[in-house]
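FORM 7B: Structural annotation worksheet

SECTION A. Query
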Amino acid sequence: MSVRFTGKVALITGGGSGIGRATALAFAREGATVVVAGRQAEPLDETVTLIEAEGGRASAMPADVSSSEDVARLVTTTVERHGGLHIAFNNAGVLEAGPLADLDESAWDRQLSINVTGVFLCMRHEIAHMRANGGGVIVNTASNLGAHMRLPFLGAYAASKAAVSTLTRAAAMEYIGEGIRINAISPGPIETSMSLRPGETEADRAERLKSALPIGRAGTLDEAAAAVLWLASPEAGFTVGHDLVVDGGASA
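SECTION B. Predicted structure
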């Protein structure tokens, strides 16, 4: 078993499912103590149970990333409970599709408040701790929809994720001098519910992606998690302000 992250504390938002859960498991397998955060307690507890069943260390902390008070408490409690915060994976996000002119303002607001403001607030509080404690690593979840490509009916989501990509690179320039290394991943269709179209089954998705993606399939959760772990690892020590596209060639 690799021990790349032994002695490290990793905080993961959106840790109750999908890429967040897979990444939490991957960090724990490589020695990290993992904190998973999200709006609902039950899926977070399920992630912790899965980690502990493999002999890993984890805890769950419900939090709304669009609330500065919640995020401040999340970071403070993580440090108090586990003795530090070395790695943060800001992964919480939502997707609501629809023609732009017909999109409810509430749907626009939700995607901006969680996908963009949530990343800003997380970085704000994480950076405040890291800069006072010798540095750290931050990875944000953007998307191949945004800075890299666009699709009809996903304009609000793409705008929010393009903002994450830009915010990541700007923050990386500001804080690398203080030992905080910041990057992003931009996944394409991954084997999660978010990549399913309305009414589509997993088999339907597999058939659609045979021709829709150059690689001919959805990405696996392990492939997405591996990209995050590499960016967080010492092997990526010279990688700063990068937006790593993991999309099977969709935006190539």
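SECTION C. Observations
The longest strand covers residues 180-187. The radius of gyration is 17 Å.

SECTION D. Sign-off
Analyst initials: ____
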